[in-house]
Amino acid sequence: MLAEKGSAEIHGNKPDWYQATSRYETPDPRKATWQILDTFIPYIALWAGMIYTVAYGYSYWITFALILAASVLLVRIFIFFHDCCHGSFFASSRSNRILGYVSGILTFTPYEDWRRSHAIHHATVGDLDRRGTGDVSLLTVDEYLASSGRTRLAYRLYRNPLVMFGFGPALMFLFRFRLPSKGARKHERRSVLVTNLAIIAVIILASFIIGFKTYLLIQLPVILIAGAIGLWLFYIQHDFEGVYWARHKDWDQMRASLEGCSYYKLPGILKWITGNIGLHHIHHIRPRIPNYNLQKCYEATPALQEIIPLTFCKSLRTPWLNLWDEKQTKLVSFRSVKTQQQGTLQS
């Protein structure tokens, strides 16, 4: 959400300060290399520790503590994957592609296919007439009320926090990403095949070296916990109180970036884990800014500091905002729509 002053400074499609932010798009090979080292080395070490604790019969609670640590590092690895999809982590497109495929295999996400759907998400964020690719499904109040009982039930289940963040990671990372997305081209379908074959190869190799059961006891909770964290981050980046949505004829991409993407203010360690992805409004303004330059861009651009942050406590209310009310231009809950309907019937 924009403070009044920041909103007033926007002239046409681009604000006055926009051009200056381009300087932060330049990748830094030293920072990129350091991020790989400070994340992949601990991740590999944690895998060694988890294998050891399972193999030698330690309490699974000890293993689980290591699983939690590995899960948050896998979230950080996904941020690298995400940067590679935007071509921003390295200056070299080849290096981005290699790291993208490697981190995609670790996170069970096909590089080329996800890259395409995510690019569509960036091009259509906040546009009510172009929903449906790379985003969290959203219905307007009128669409919901005009739907059949079966469609309403399916949507309510989909939007239920237990389903979205409980079953959602399994459905997404274990099953959905095993198939190409709608409209995928040849090289994108190939990326799905390559990722699937690589995952199968890892499973077979791990089964011979440490045993399938050991692998499953480690890999399954790691990918599901990391997936739940990732889905939560993506959800609150575009579903929050004060978010921007508009019909295509009235849609403005800059407004969609500034007001349709949250500034999720997190403490230091969580900022490190999530690769500053909480500065999501900046990321949508300049998708080619690598994660390690986002904070610097924020600190150097006063207008971006005027964005009202989404705190952790406020973010806990977002899963109950499920429908877009076009009349009030805001997200509303199922309960408020039901109450409104009852009031209309009584009057």
Explain what the structure shows.
With 347 residues, this protein is mainly alpha-helical. The protein has one domain (4-346). It is 63% helix and 3% strand. The chain has helices spanning 4-8, 29-55, 60-85, 93-106, 111-124, 141-146, 149-159, 161-175, 186-209, 212-238, 253-259, 268-273, 280-285, 291-300, 302-305, 312-315, 334-346, and strands spanning 10-11, 14-15, 139-140, 323-325, 330-332. The strands form 2 sheets. The protein has a 3-stranded mixed β-sheet with strand order 3-4-5. A two-stranded antiparallel sheet has the order 1-2. Helix 2 crosses helix 10 (212-238), helix 3 packs antiparallel against helix 4 and helix 8 crosses helix 10 (212-238). It is globular and about 65 Å long. The chain starts with a helix and ends with a helix.
Secondary-structure blueprint:
Layout (H helix, E strand, L loop, with lengths): L3 H5 L1 E2 L2 E2 L13 H27 L4 H26 L7 H14 L4 H14 L14 E2 H6 L2 H11 L1 H15 L10 H24 L2 H27 L14 H7 L8 H6 L6 H6 L5 H10 L1 H4 L6 H4 L7 E3 L4 E3 L1 H13 L1
Parallel strand pairs: 3-4
Antiparallel strand pairs: 1-2, 4-5
Helix pairs in contact: 2-3, 2-10, 3-4, 3-10, 4-9, 5-9, 8-10, 9-10
Concise account of the structure shown:
The chain has 347 residues and is mostly helical.
Number of helices: 17
Tertiary shape:
globular
Distance from N terminus to C terminus (CA atoms, Å) equals 35 Å
How much helicity do the residues have? Answer: 55-70%
Task: Write the H/E string, N to C.
Answer: HEEHHHHEHHHHHHHHHHHEEH
Average of per-residue pLDDT values: 93
Poorly predicted regions:
1-12
The class by helix and strand makeup works out as mainly alpha
Would you count the extended β strands for me? 5
Q: What composes the largest sheet?
A: 3 strands, mixed
What proportion of the residues form beta strands (DSSP E)? Answer: under 5%
CA radius of gyration? 21 Å
Strand order of the largest sheet: 3-4-5
